[in-house]
Design a protein that fits this description.
This protein has one domain. It has seven helices and no strands. α2 crosses α7 and α5 packs antiparallel against α7.
């Protein structure tokens, strides 16, 4: 399993180095971009943590929902995608496209809040 994950990450980012987009980007946005780049998001992997046996499907295409599918392949998101970026592969997307454009695209298609789990801590003071 670990070898498969290393192989997937290598396909996107063969060299690990500092990120070029940390200035002015919120921590949440950085987390979303990182999760997308490794292909592990709440929307694509939450079934592993529940009683659900199968991965989620794209509500438009009825194929397994993956990061690659909704960022690059889904024909029903092509109009929105073309407004923000054009990329042939995930490697191309994360190397050439400004992360802010990806974030705005995710917000436009209403996926932004479904990428990572964020727990809100409620502090009660007596």
């Amino acid at each position: 399993m670990a070898a498969v994950l290393v192989h997937l990450l290598y396909a996107i980012k063969p060299l690990l180095c500092t990120k070029r987009y940390t200035n002015g980007t919120s921590r949440r946005d950085l987390t979303v971009i990182t999760r997308l780049s490794i292909g592990h998001t709440r929307v694509t992997h939450s079934y592993l943590l529940t009683t659900r046996d199968t991965p989620h499907e794209c509500s438009y295409c009825h194929v397994t929902l993956t990061v690659k599918h909704f960022l690059l392949k889904c024909p029903f998101l092509s109009v929105e995608r073309s407004m923000y970026f054009c990329a042939a592969s995930l490697k191309d997307l994360f190397e050439r496209v400004y992360p802010g454009a990806i974030i705005i695209f995710l917000k436009d298609i209403h996926y932004y809040d479904h990428i990572v789990w964020f727990y809100h801590i409620l502090y009660i003071f007596f």
